[in-house]
Each structure stands twice: as structure tokens, then as C-alpha cells.
Amino acid sequence: MAFRRRSGSSLCYACGKLNRVDAAVCFHCGARAPGLWGFGGSIGSLVRGLDWSRAVIVLCVVVYVASLLLDLPAAMRMRGVFNFLSPSSAALNALGMTGAYAWAHGRWWTLISAIYLHGGLLHLVFNLFWVRQLAPEVEELFGRSRLTVIFTAGGVVGFVVSDLMGVPFSVGASGAIFGLLGALVSYGRTRGGAFGVAIMRQYGHWALILFILGFLMPGVNNLAHAGGFVGGYLAGALLGSRERRPERPAEDIVASVVIVLTVASFVLALWTTFAR
Fold it and tell me: What span, in angstroms and rounded, lies between the C-alpha atoms of 42 and 171?
């Protein structure tokens, strides 16, 4: 099957209604190139064909191993349970660690790359457990493309808040995880009824417990947690759930852009470190 379709019909990325692939404008809403020049269907298939949580877990593990190998002697030093197999600051910085320092030097891409970096084995395992726990729930209620946007929005907003508040260095998916919790709470509040209230209470309680635990563990960035929750809540409210309307091709495109930006963030991090 060709990646680009040159004939037949496809859904408009703007209104979700059927058009010819080669139509200049949508017959229903007037959007230009509703079939995205034949690439629209393939973009949607790529995004929706992923095992989302597995892809995120694999990316986090690969980046974590790379961060260890960049400075293996430092990673092998025994510095306590919470710092077991911890990458060095230099290695994390090379791969796109964020914080006030990166913000001051204009490294905007670290707001994305830092989501997938982790400061130690325990940090990695804890976050990936919650990704595996929460992502399928968000995907079921919102859809895969919206899940991609919500997760990234939570991570980015969380780091923006912590960077602006002067946290010097930060990594980890926990802000994005709080974004998933925020989206679930947003869904429950909008849904209403017994089911909506149950969803809101369950995930709201989980968010509260995890936030309190953040004060009891060393080195936790609770500013990123709070910002991530707000970012995910707002993204969930703006995008809406599947019950309100099905996902549209436009959201597949936005999710694809997010994926491209994620890849680009690591390219920029490596280029800034090694090619300048």
C-alpha cells in the first residue's frame, strides 16, 4: 500500500467529513487540501497504529541506557538507593536536560526531551509504571492522538513552570504523568453523573497522594508536578473526550507534529552538545 494516495476518498482534517483525496478545498467546510495531498490517511494510520505506552517505555529505556553509557564511570558510583545507576549531570545535559540554566540559554527543545530522561533506575521504573497504568485509560477515553498531545502538554507545561520558578536542572516523565491524571480529572468533571464523579475522585485522590509523596522524597520537582496536572487538565478540557466527538484527522496531524518535535528535540540536544 502506497504511503500517498492519489485517488479515492479521505476524511477532511478540519471537519472529519468525506472528500476526494485530490480536492482543492473541502466540499463541506472549505478547508484547503482536505486530503493533505494524499498523505492524510497514512498519517492517521501511523499515529493510531502505535502501541503508545510501549513506544514511550522503549524510548525512555533507550535514552536512559544512552545516558549511562555517555559517562559510565560516574553512573557506576554507589550513592545510595535513590541514586543507584544515576546518569551524570553532563550526560543528562548532553541529551537534553531542562531547567533554569537551559531556559536562560534558549534551549526550548529541552522542555520536550527532558520528559524522557531520568535521573536513576528507581526514578525510571516508578515513572514507567505510571505510564503503563494511566496511558491506556486516557487513550480509551480520549483517543490515541489526544493522548499524545495531553502527555506532551503536561510535561512541557510542568517544565515551563519549574524553569520559570528557578529550578536549575530537571528531568523525568512525572510532569507528563500528572498531565494524564489532570486529563482524567477533567473528563470526570465534564462527564458528571455517578461514573464521572467516580473517575474524578479516583484519579484526583491518586494525584493528591503522589503530590504529597513528592514532598517526602529527595530531589522531587513538585512544581513540575503541579504544572503538569494543570497542563493535562486544560488539554483534556480543550480537546474533549471521545464521548463528545470522535478524533478527527486534524488531531492525528497535531499528534504527528508532536512526535516530530520530540525526535527533533533530541537531535537539537545532541547537535548543541557535540556538533558546535
Answer: 33
Average pLDDT on 245-272 reads: 92
The residues assigned a catalytic role are 174, 225
pLDDT score recorded for residue 8: 64
CATH fold for the domain made of 46-274: Rhomboid-like fold (1.20.1540)
pLDDT of residue 248 exceeding 90? no
Residue 46 scores a pLDDT above 70: no
* pLDDT at residue 151 is higher than 80: yes
Where do the domains of the chain lie? 9-38, 46-274
Q: 16-31: per-residue pLDDT in tens? A: 666 666 666 776 676 6
